[in-house]
Amino acid sequence: MTPDRVADAARHLARARLSGPPTPAPAAALVPDGVAEGYALQRAVNAVLEAAGFGPRTGHKIGCTTPVMQAYLGIPHPCAGEVFASTVHEGAAELPLSRFHRVGVECEIAARLGQDLPARSGGHDRDSVAAAVDCLMAGIELVDDRYADYAALPAPVLIADDFFNAGVVLGSAVPDWRGLDLATIEGVMTVDGAEAGRGRGADILGHPLSALAWLADHRAALGLPLRAGEFVMLGSVVKTVWIEAPARVEIRFEGLGEASVTFT
Q1: Is residue 136 part of a domain?
Q2: 236 lies in a domain?
Q3: Helix or strand holding residue 177 (H, E)
Q4: pTM exceeds 0.85, yes or no
Q5: Cα gap 65→73, rounded to integer Å
Q6: What are phi and psi of 221, to 5 degrees?
Q7: Contact 183, 204 (CB under 8 A)
Q8: Residue 182 falls within a domain, yes or no?
Q9: Please, which residues have CB within 8 angstroms of residue 212's CB and are 6 or more apart in sequence?
């Protein structure tokens, strides 16, 4: 797309997050031509949001890392987005439903980095990224269906809009996570005390750190490597649960603790 069309597309996608109505499908001229152009447009969208007061981006999310989510969205590959500091909540959050168009919740493992992850010859693997992880946390990703019809939007458009992200709730840091078997670790989500889904770490690209390795290579290829202090949401082990009325959502991972959010 030309610079003018990138600017128009960025404003189109940012509007719903700036108190506008649900995002309609963009005109054909504003649709990214493939995934790479989608990520380029994402940078433009996030620049608009940052200038509008969302603040800096301090974390990342990876969508479609599990079979359940790939099947649910019909997208067979991971998709990355950025997370703004102003949308990060710690431990137990209380949020009004009115803040969102249609909020959903996901049950995830989050990794906070203690070291940078620059490009690596031959690419990153579980071991190379594990050395950079300072701590792991249980986390809830908040997603927002801010679209007139998200099923009608191609993956590059969803990527450009941070792949539904609307924030996160991070549990307590677990620095001694290396004794855990991350492939077999089980995550459970409840809504008002009733189980809403469960899954295991191996559901996330075979191992949660495989998702982190994918993102490290992806960001390095963009010339924007992951940095110490940033966190990464590694993907949901349960299908998105949409919250239509006030409710309390809790997620827990064995050995990693829990996080919760109450919607009012």
Answers
A1: yes
A2: yes
A3: none
A4: yes
A5: 11
A6: -65, -30
A7: no
A8: yes
A9: 111, 124, 129, 133, 232, 234
* 43-71 pLDDT per residue, tens: 999 999 999 999 999 999 999 988 888 88
Q: Report how many domains make up the chain.
A: 1
CA gap 203, 76 in Å, rounded: 14
d(CA 115, CA 226): 9
Residues 6+ apart with CB under 8 A from 146: 16, 17, 22, 23, 100, 101, 102, 161, 164, 166
Give residue 230's domain range: 56-263
Pick from 75, 11, 77, 17: nearest CA to 41: 11
Residue 11 within any structural domain of the chain? no
pLDDT in tens, 229-245: 999 999 999 999 999 99
The residue type at 196: A
Inter-residue contact 72 to 236 (CB < 8 Å): no
Helix H or strand E segment including 247: strand 247-253
Nearest-angstrom CA–CA distance, 28 and 26: 6
Cβ-based neighbours of 238, under 8 Å, separated by 6 or more: 68, 106, 107, 187, 189, 196, 197, 198, 199
Q: State the residue for tokens 């710690």.
A: 90
DSSP secondary structure string for all residues of 54-72: I--EEEEEEES-SHHHHHH
The CATH code of the domain that includes 75 is 3.90.850.10
Angle of the 35-49 helix axis to the 3-14 helix axis, nearest 10:
60
What are the structure tokens assigned to 203, written together? 């559901």
